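@channel sequence for tomorrow's demo:
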Amino acid sequence: MSTTPSHYREEVLNPFFKYMKSGESFYVVGAPSVGKTRLMDFIMGDEPDALWADIEVDRDWVKKQYLGEDIAPKIWLARVDMNRMRHEHDWGFQFYELLLHTVLLACDRYSAMEKIATLKEQLAALDSQIIQSKDALMAHRLFEMAVNMICQSYNIKICFLFDEFDETYKLMPHEVFSQLRAIRDANKYRLSYVLFLRNLPEKLRLPTDNESFYELISRNMLGLGPYSAMDTFHIIGQLEKRREHDLSKENREWVWANSGGHPGLIQALFTLIKEKPLTPAQMQTLDWLAKQEIVSEEFRKIWEGLLDEEQDALKKIAHGDQNSVSSSTGKLLLAKGMVKPLGGRMAFFSPLFEYWL
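structure tokens (generated this afternoon):
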């Protein structure tokens, strides 16, 4: 069971699981504080509220909803936390040991699966060999052996989810990207990679520097923007319950209209309306709202999380000069939901943000 409704982020999760089902690798791009980690928690069934509930939690319920009861157990999700690498940028021994250990942890989700105990023993033995050897080549070969065994002997699909992967994507040696591509090709459509990024891969490093891996993900992009109206009203409902403060229907719609569904702005506007009752005039005055500290601080975080070229492009769009925005920057702003097409022009996600800008 989950505290988040089944329709949560369905505009993203429908194509997300279609890619996963077909064994395609892809990437998800979103601005800072737009909810990438929360989406990952939801997909993995790791929501804190649900895990602490006094009921048995089915952590695969999201997969089952999108993939079906029969297919879901045959596709494993392995969430890779790059912060667990003890030595920064050790792309040999440490990186592959982390990947294998992540798969080993995934076994715990499938304790009822036939032969899972045997598989877990085999994976634990390989992981132990890597740790004892502390050898980069050994780690690479044993991880490759583990993946081949899972995909080919046990007929399981594996999908590695790499969260907050921008810095790693920039710094990881091209040889490691080539190795990941080779392991995937040996298990075609049974092994896939999903990267959660703040930027487009081609803006993080030259595509020619990791060409084979870039080719694997470049055609499959998912943008993660602000919440839909339905998700926004659900989030507002959660805030009302957690902060013990109910809003009127009009005030909920006001939060939606001015936040544009951005998670940080939803919270800022909710806090503003909770802490000091606003007059109708204040609620309708963008100048007054944009100057409130809690709102302007959220805008600052959004702004500083953007690239210089994204900031310049938004300024141009604000002044009606969208035609001079490069196609790649426009693609990124659309993917992040900072702007959206409206009547032949680019409109900002929030009228309040447009006014502030």
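heads up for whoever presents: Strands lie at 26-30, 75-80, 157-162, 191-197, 221-224, 339-342, 345-348.
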